[in-house]
């Protein structure tokens, strides 16, 4: 074996002592059969290896992509239904792959659980080994320090014991764990690297636990509220509600709030005309004690009440309309929320009169008025009826009229913003077309045949949609994320290294000082640090002066004459020959 190979092997053996990673055992292909227990052990070693943990983490990230791109049932059921209607071929495939319920799917849960087990199985032995290293002292110096990546040496007149004591004080002053082992001082520093590594992986487990807690105990619901209307945090008040499998409705925080006013401002000119500038919902809320408080909910600035957060999601307009029957009796009066279909809040919806209306024969009949609303109307003859600006600059309401059965009494769920015309008949105008009219605020549309009228009142209210959620794992997830960043920073920027200082007496009686350093990874800072340590120690144990050279021969000094009998003997004749 060559000297280079021997040096590399020694460095590898010394470097292996710096690692807390569990050793992976390998099995030769020609060995005996593993057996059931052997295969279980092999599978466990593979599952708990860092390589498999990284693969599972990557798969988990990939699995979250469709959850962000494809509409989810637990987020927006309406978008899921719309997607299925628009993609009749893809929708069944997505259903089989559970892509509309990614985060509760079998395959995502399997990756999640395997990653959880892998991280725990990886961290526990590493933590145990690292704890053992903390209890032990740094290892003694190798026999040949010259083979270390960073090395220096000099000779000093100080005694070896003095050099070792000075080195021990210096290293401890630099926050090294140091002790004297034989003829050398062994020191180690940079344990925060391993702490950061373990902290990062523990933080991943904390975030996984937080995610699981949030999914199991969460509650989330939506509510559309018109100005001057309110909401109480009970299950019956929600428009839609979703919760985790371990959530109980008794855990809903007892609070309520009222929407006093919604304010939206927009850029009025320039290339960004119509861009939202301010969305604010002024509310009055109260907790279980009944004390009322005022608050403002903005986008990304939720209202927090007793562990629940109220987010502002969207907004729109709710024109106030009045419906009267043929006799002039008022059968409906109120604000009707309409859903926006573009950025300028062109909105659609239905005015439904379910009770109180009778036709001219006295028969109970239900009315439906499909509505098309624009906050800023360009005017007749200026293109289609779409809004030119999201604010209420020139509002207009287009209505058509139907009568019959709204199909709301059959017990089947129905979209309140759509009209089921299967049992409805349209009112017709003089030309036999569906009766419709565009109204400005204050105008009235009179139905044919004395069937009544509908008035677009001058008052136009705004509505806001809120999401009320309880996420018990959010704080834990935040703590895990911060800990993961701190641990990752420690594992990347802190270098674990060892330093040895050997001081022994040489053959000529002069003390020889050797210093060497070894880092877990190659770094330019290790030689620099060793040079700084050597400079500091050299000040306390300076280099010894070199021995004086032998003086050259010259004229004999007085008194140096040879004594009688000291003359050299005459050369032997035979030797000369």
From TrEMBL:
It comes from Streptomyces ficellus. Keywords: Cytochrome c-type biogenesis, Membrane, Transmembrane, Transmembrane helix. It is a multi-pass membrane protein. The chain crosses the membrane at residues 52-70, 106-128, 198-217, 475-494. Residues 1-12 have a biased composition (Basic and acidic residues). Residues 50-530 form the ResB-like domain. It holds the Pfam family ResB. InterPro entries: Cyt_c_bgen_Ccs1/CcsB/ResB, ResB-like_domain. One of its GO terms (biological process) is cytochrome complex assembly. Residues 542-553 have a biased composition (Low complexity). PANTHER family: CYTOCHROME C BIOGENESIS PROTEIN CCS1, CHLOROPLASTIC (PTHR31566). The keyword Membrane applies. This is Cytochrome c biogenesis protein ResB.
């Amino acid at each position: 074996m060559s000297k280079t190979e021997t040096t590399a092997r020694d460095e590898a053996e010394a470097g292996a002592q710096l690692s807390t990673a569990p050793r992976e055992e390998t099995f030769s292909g020609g060995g005996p059969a593993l057996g059931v227990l052997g295969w279980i052990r092999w599978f466990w070693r593979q599952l708990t290896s860092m390589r498999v943990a990284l693969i599972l983490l990557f798969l988990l990230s990939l699995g979250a992509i469709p959850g962000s791109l494809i509409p989810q049932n637990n987020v927006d059921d309406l978008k899921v239904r719309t997607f299925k209607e628009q993609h009749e071929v893809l929708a069944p495939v997505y259903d089989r792959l559970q892509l509309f319920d990614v985060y509760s799917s079998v395959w995502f849960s399997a990756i999640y659980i395997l990653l959880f087990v892998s991280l725990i199985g990886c961290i526990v032995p590493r933590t145990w080994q690292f704890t053992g290293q903390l209890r032990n002292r740094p290892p003694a110096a190798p026999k040949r320090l010259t083979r270390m990546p960073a090395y220096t040496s000099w000779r000093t007149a100080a005694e070896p014991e003095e050099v070792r004591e000075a080195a021990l004080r210096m290293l401890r002053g630099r926050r090294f764990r140091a002790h004297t082992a034989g003829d050398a001082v062994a020191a180690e520093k940079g344990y925060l690297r391993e702490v950061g590594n373990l902290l990062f992986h523990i933080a991943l487990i904390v975030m996984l636990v937080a995610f699981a807690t949030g999914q199991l105990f969460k509650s989330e619901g939506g509510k559309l509220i018109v100005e001057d209307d309110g909401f109480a945090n009970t299950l019956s008040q929600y428009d839609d509600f979703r919760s985790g499998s371990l959530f109980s409705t008794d855990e809903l925080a007892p609070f309520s709030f009222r929407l006093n006013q919604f304010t939206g401002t927009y850029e009025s000119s320039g290339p960004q005309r119509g861009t939202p500038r301010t969305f604010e919902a002024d509310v009055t809320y109260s907790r279980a004690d009944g004390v009322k408080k005022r608050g403002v909910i903005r986008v990304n600035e939720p209202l927090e009440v007793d562990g629940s957060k109220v987010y502002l999601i969207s907004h729109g307009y709710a024109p106030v309309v009045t419906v009267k029957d043929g006799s002039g009796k008022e059968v409906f009066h109120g604000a009707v929320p309409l859903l926006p279909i573009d950025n300028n809040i062109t909105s659609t919806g239905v005015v439904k009169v379910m009770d109180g209306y009778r036709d001219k024969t006295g028969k109970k009949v239900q009315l439906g008025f499909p509505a098309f609303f624009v906050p800023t109307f360009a005017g007749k003859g200026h293109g289609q009826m779409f809004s030119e600006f999201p604010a209420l600059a020139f509002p207009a309401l287009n209505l058509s009229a139907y009568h019959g059965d709204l199909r709301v009494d059959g017990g089947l769920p129905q979209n309140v913003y759509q009209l089921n015309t299967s049992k409805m008949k349209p009112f017709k105008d003089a030309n036999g077309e569906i009766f419709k009219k565009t109204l400005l605020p204050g105008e009235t549309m009179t139905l044919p045949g004395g069937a009544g009228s509908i008035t677009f009142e001058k008052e136009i209210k705004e509505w806001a949609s809120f999401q009320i959620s309880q996420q018990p794992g959010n704080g834990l997830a935040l703590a895990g994320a911060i800990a993961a960043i701190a641990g990752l920073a420690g594992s990347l920027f802190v270098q674990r290294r060892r330093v040895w200082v050997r001081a022994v007496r040489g053959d000529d009686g002069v003390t020889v000082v050797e210093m060497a350093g070894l880092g877990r990874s190659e770094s330019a800072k290790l030689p620099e640090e060793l040079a700084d340590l050597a400079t500091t120690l050299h000040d306390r144990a300076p280099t010894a002066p070199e021995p004086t050279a032998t003086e050259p021969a010259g004229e004999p000094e007085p008194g140096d004459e040879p004594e009688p009998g000291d003359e050299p003997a005459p050369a032997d004749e035979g030797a000369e020959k």
